[in-house]
Design goal:
single chain; alpha/beta; 6-stranded mixed β-sheet; 8 strands; disordered N terminus
């Protein structure tokens, strides 16, 4: 946290109108952005569905519902809704656990889990639970995503090599979902790689890595689209349709309507289903809210998302998508970033991206069926790599040894055991470290804060220790301060501020000053950053 003087933030430009006035004002820029996002989203939606153990059309259904419907219900302005790599492990686990060897039955049971997940998200929105995103420590969240990335890579590398039957890779007595077992099975998969699919998979990986270096070209012709097109060309060259059509994408007869599948609620109240419902709600909600917060920072107009409406929008979307046979959806970070970079101004770009996907699947499904599975798997291998990129761990180490350990421990347990177990372990580890740092049990979940107001100035006295466990209360206090004032954060009586709180206080400062207020920080002379990174934890100076 920077010293006593606050950074001067540039005023934001005039905010685009919303709803129908926004459409009339910005339709040209939003159609262009929506079209480019559609080019990214279509191959990703197909690949994510396949990696999730679901029919490929399920990902398309999710993208259409997320774009056409949820864009009009959500509380954010420029995020893109659809299937996401971060949910692959959840969907795959639910299908395998509930199906007990029958993928189609497991898929229908998992759809029922998705419907209940959506209903619970609606309830959370009505209960104004959007603030819950402030509880989770950032390093644990990054560790969760890294663990998901490792599992995605381990599961998709065999497919990129032409080994499509997972049951042939992992012995039946092994728990298939565990990433560690998928990793141990890789040597056998590599030994049975098929020549032509391997070429296609490797080319897709290289395109995903190298194509972004073309800058402006890559901005309008995204890497996933290029990887899919090159995969089609190579598939035709190698005559895969005649030699082994199982290596190509297969859509249901009747196109989109033929892919509509209804949920089976007969197992929805079993212990297994409840476990996956909790996982769905937790991961889908957390990723959506974190993505919306991240896009608020990237939005050139600095609009702040309504997180409770995000819950409501995603809840409605997940219920409808699951009723129709689609995957669960979130606000997805890669597509949302591309949306902003390509000039999107309103929620209508998300709407148009869904419309373009609907038109494409309705008019040219035969083209999609020419895409090799190895090309889609190669795309997802790179998506997984980016989630688990070593630089994420390097950054955590620079923030502090504790943050690195939180992230590493969470990642390891997510891969070796279970996603929720990994996250819970990371949170517990963080709470234990907070106690070791001197946080009392009474202070662990309740921030010690005192406020006073005089003549347009609000002084917030921060006392004792501030950590992720008690930040929700502090943020609620800050959100009650009227806009346009001078806010003084007084750290005189505070002896520890963890990295998550340091970063989120910086976010508050920037948000508040963009709204015309001013934030000052005082009483920091007895505190120092744990490392050279400006967002590292604040500890008592020696």
């Amino acid at each position: 946290m920077h010293a006593e003087t606050a950074e001067v933030h540039q005023p934001r430009p005039a905010i685009p109108k919303d709803w129908l006035p926004g459409l009339a004002e910005n339709w040209k820029s939003d159609i262009l952005a929506g079209f480019i996002v559609f080019l990214i989203a279509l191959p990703l939606s197909l690949g994510i569905a396949l990696a999730s153990g679901a029919p490929p059309i399920a990902g398309v259904i999710t993208a259409i519902v997320g774009g056409v419907l949820v864009s009009l219900l959500s509380g954010s302005y420029v995020t893109i809704n659809g299937p996401a790599a971060g949910l692959i492990v959840i969907v795959l686990g639910a299908i395998e656990a509930l199906g007990e060897g029958d993928p189609l039955a497991g898929y229908r049971y998992a759809l029922a889990v998705g419907v209940v997940c959506g209903a619970l998200q609606i309830l959370l929105g009505l209960l104004r639970a959007g603030k819950m995103t402030n509880f989770f420590p950032l390093s644990v969240v990054h560790g969760m995503l890294a663990g998901i990335g490792v599992i995605i890579m381990a599961r998709q590398i065999p497919v990129a090599l032409g080994v499509t039957e997972i049951a042939h890779i992992i012995p039946s007595e092994w728990p298939v979902l565990h990433g560690s077992n998928s990793i141990l099975a890789l040597p056998d998969a590599i030994s049975r790689a098929e020549f032509y699919p391997t070429i296609i998979g490797v080319v897709a990986v290289l395109i995903m890595f190298l194509w972004p270096a073309l800058k402006q070209v890559a901005r309008f012709v995204p890497a996933p689209l290029v990887a899919a097109i090159v995969g089609v060309v190579l598939g035709i060259t190698f005559n895969l349709a005649a030699t082994d059509p199982r290596l190509l994408l297969q859509l249901p007869e009747g196109g989109l309507l033929g892919g509509l599948t209804t949920p089976d609620f007969s197992k929805v109240f079993t212990g297994t289903s409840i476990r996956w419902i909790v996982a769905f709600v937790f991961v889908a909600s957390l990723e959506s809210l974190l993505t919306a917060a991240a896009m608020d920072k990237m939005d050139p107009y600095k609009r702040r998302s309504n997180m409770n409406r995000e819950f409501l929008g995603k809840g409605v979307g997940n219920m409808i998508s699951s009723f129709l046979g689609g995957l669960p959806m979130i606000a997805e970070v890669v597509r949302s970033s591309a949306n902003i970079f390509n000039g999107a101004k309103t929620r209508w770009s998300n709407f148009f991206h869904g419309v373009f996907i609907l038109i494409c699947v309705g008019l040219i499904p035969f083209v999609l069926e020419m895409i090799p599975l190895a090309a889609l798997a190669g795309i997802l291998v790179v998506v997984g790599w980016r989630l688990a990129h070593p630089k994420q761990f390097v950054h955590a180490k620079r923030i502090g040894t504790e943050e690195f350990l939180f992230m590493l421990a969470t990642t390891t347990i997510v891969v070796a055991e279970d996603l929720l177990v990994g996250v819970v372990f990371g949170i517990l580890l963080g709470l234990i470290v907070a106690v070791v740092r001197g946080t009392s049990l009474g202070n662990l979940f309740k921030a010690s804060v005192q406020t006073s107001q005089t003549d347009g100035k609000t002084v917030v006295r921060l006392k004792r220790a501030l950590g992720f466990g008690n930040f929700m209360g502090l943020r609620a206090t800050l959100d009650r301060i009227p806009p346009g004032q001078t806010v003084v954060l007084d750290f005189t009586e505070c002896h520890f501020v963890d990295h998550t709180v340091v970063e989120r206080l910086e976010d508050f400062e920037q948000e508040y000053e963009r709204e015309g207020g001013h934030v000052e920080k005082t009483g920091l002379t007895h505190l120092r950053h744990a490392t050279a990174e400006p967002l590292s934890a604040l500890v008592t100076a020696a």
